Structures are given as structure tokens and as C-alpha cells.
Amino acid sequence: MSAHGRDNNHKPSFRFNKKLHLPIILLAILSASLWAVGSFAAGIAAAEDEKNRALTITPTPGPSPTIVFTPTPTPTIEPTPSPTITGDSTPIGNPGNIPNVITNGSRNRLEIALTFDDGPHPQYTPQVLQILKRYNIKATFFCLGQMIQENPDLVRQEHQAGHVVASHSWSHPDLTTLSMDQLQKELKNTSDLIYNTIGERPTLVRPPYGSYNNNVVQVANSLSEKIIIWDVDTNDWQRKGVDSIVNTAFQEAGKGSIILMHDAGGERSQTIAALPRIIEGLKARGYSFVTVPELLSHMG
């Protein structure tokens, strides 16, 4: 080997220099150690993360619950129906010797009382009032409490025009089928309402269907009401035609008659059409028309 550090074969000669290479070796070892530690830590973190992912349960979201609100229905208030007369109006009972049960007036006078049941009705009662006014006639109206409650102004019109307002019960039941308490309410409540409407209590009552018994008579008497039936039923409630209504009145009416007609309780156009003909026909025979109280006042 030459003085320049080459051997005779011109190959480079490597000589280990401790002072020069020791730091390099230490740095390499440290780097390798740090890399190994970092790789190990990264591996542990990755493994831990994988473990956590494996242990974490992610719930599958289900559909949101649907809340259905069921609205409370608005109550339907049904109005109270107007009473409809469908049965026979033939009087039940024998008024013969029963005090305060009256079917007619004096048989010695050419007087007739026109009476109208079941009102007042907003369509038919005003037409009846117009006809009576045209002929200057006063009549007697047997009114239902239910109908008075619905049409108080018509009752006031009847009263102010000089007609007589009387009771026909509250709701048109067969009074003979009621208990004493029910009977009392039917007649007393109607009497009270008439008083509150026109300032006078009724002195007359007509039991629906002309049906009465001793209990009906007793309660009517306690209210100072005479029971008024009839002796001429035009059967206008059957609606057999205007001619039938008129002819029945002509055939059956006589001195002191109480004629039964209706201004409510059903379709009453035939009654409205028949009324002028009845008035004119009976007037032509010499009859005059009075209220029931006037008729009774002439019986003495």
C-alpha cells in the first residue's frame, strides 16, 4: 500500500475511524429505535381503534312515530221538532155531568166560536190572523207551550188583536197517560209561560186529542182552567181537501157550536183556504162569531 492509502492493486482501502463514525452510528441506532417505537405505537392505536369500532353498535334509525290527533266532534244540537198531530181528535171521555168540561155554548143563540189548536206557527198563524182581521172576528187559540216558547211574538199579536190565548198543554201528549206530577208540569208550565208572555193566565185548557179523565179535571181545576172540547171537528188535520173541511163545518155547526180547526201541527194550507169560506157561509146563515169565554157567558 502506498503513502496515499492505496494498495498495490489500486483498490480503495477503508480504514475505520472511531472518532468520525461513532456519532453517525449512534444517530442511526436512535433513528431506528424511534421508528420502531412509532410504528409500534401506531399499530397499537390502529388496533385499539379497530377494537372500538367493533364494539360500537350504531342503531339503525327507525321511522319517526306518527302522532294522529283525533278531533273531538262538535256536538250536534238537534232542535225540538214541532208537534205533529197524527191521531184521531175525537174526544175521549163523557163531559155530560163533569163540572168545567164544556163542548158547546147555548143552543138558543146563533153564536159560534172558532178555535185553533197547536200553534202558534210562524207560517200559518199570521195568515189566520189576517183572515180574522178581514172579517172582524175574534177567535180562541189553544196554544202549546213548546210553540209559544218558539214564537212568543205571535202569541202577543193574538192577544193584542183581542183574541183569547188558552192552553193546549206543553208538548201535546195524551194527558190521561201521565202521572200526576207529569200532568201538573204539562199544564202548569204552559200556564206560567202564557202569563210571562202576555201578562195574563189562561182560564181555558183543551187537552190534546180531547182526552181527559178525573186527574186531568183535577189539575185543570187547581189552575182555575175550564176544559174546553168541541162539538164540530172539521178534520182539517186529515187534509182531505178544502171542500171536505168546509162541508163538514156547514153540516155539523149549529147554535152554540165550538168549531175545531188547527193553525199548526202539520201542513195547514187547506185550513187557510177553507177558513174564509166557512166564515162567509155561516155568516150567510145568520151566525155571529165570538170567543169561547163570550160563548160561555151567554149560557146562563
Automatic annotation (TrEMBL):
Task: Extract one GO BP annotation from the record.
Answer: carbohydrate metabolic process
Which keywords appear in this protein's UniProt record, sorted alphabetically? Answer: Hydrolase, Metal-binding
Q: Which CDD domains match?
A: CE4_NodB_like_6s_7s
Q: Which domain of life is it from?
A: Bacteria
State if Hydrolase is listed as a keyword.
yes
GO MF, one example: metal ion binding
Describe the location of the NodB homology domain by residue ranges. 110-290
Per the record, the coiled-coil ranges are none
- Whether Metal-binding counts among this entry's keywords is yes
Question: Region entry Disordered: which residue ranges?
Answer: 72-94
Residue ranges, compositional bias (Pro residues) = 72-82
GO cellular component annotations of the record:
membrane
Annotated InterPro entries = Glyco_hydro/deAcase_b/a-brl, NODB_dom, Polysacc_deacetylase_ArnD
Report the protein name in the record.
NodB homology domain-containing protein
* Species, as recorded: Thermosporothrix sp. COM3
The lineage is: Bacteria, Bacillati, Chloroflexota, Ktedonobacteria, Ktedonobacterales
